[in-house]
């Protein structure tokens, strides 16, 4: 069994940046969730908002890493309208029975992090080893790295 897999959905790139940095920090494998439908432009934004608010599960694809082969899966999502991104909901619905342990993070414009993390934990059916909410302002300033280290310490020492 491998030690750690970081799985992220990212529309703007913020969540992927944080997820890849966390994977590098821990020596973890990284998997991106790809959306099969476009989210570009105003219609894509509205579709994203609708799917998030109404808890839809859009079509997704991944590279096929099996989360059941990892002792810890770290899941990252942006916050959309106070909820997790709909593609992450699809991933959790598809794989939640395969998780051994989970840690969670989200990126956000300003609010909704705690609700999103609770929603993710609920869908995972697991008590997370660690959870962190990171604002886009923290990402721009580079001041989120302490939170990543806390996530690493809390998640990996529990594994």
Per-chain topology:
Layout (H helix, E strand, L loop, with lengths): L1 E7 L5 H13 L2 E4 L1 E2 L5 H13 L6 E2 L8 E11 L2 E2 L1 H10 L5 E8 L4 H12 L6 E5 H6 L3 H14 L1
Parallel strand pairs: 1-2, 1-5, 5-7, 7-8
Antiparallel strand pairs: 3-4, 5-6
Question: What brief labels describe this structure?
Answer:
6-stranded mixed beta sheet; single chain; two-stranded antiparallel ribbon; alpha/beta; Rossmann fold; 159 residues; 8 strands
Which sheet architecture does the biggest sheet show?
6 strands, mixed
The low-confidence runs, each spanning 5 or more residues with pLDDT under 50, are none
Per CATH, the architecture is 3-Layer(aba) Sandwich
Radius of gyration: 14 Å
Helices and strands, in order, run as: EHEEHEEEHEHEHH
**Helical amount:** 40-55%
Count of extended strands: 8
The number of helical runs is 6
- The CATH topology corresponds to Rossmann fold
What does this protein look like?
The structure is a single chain. By secondary structure, the protein is α/β, with parallel strands linked by helices. The chain has a single domain (2-158), classed as Rossmann fold, CATH 3.40.50.360. Helix content is 43%, strand content 26%. The chain is built from 6 helices and 8 strands; from the N terminus they run βαββαβββαβαβαα. The strands form 2 sheets. Strands 1, 2, 5, 6, 7 and 8 form a 6-stranded mixed sheet that branches. A two-stranded antiparallel ribbon has the order 3-4. The longest helix is centred in the last third of the chain and has 14 residues, at 145-158. It is globular. The model has no long low-confidence stretch (mean pLDDT 91).
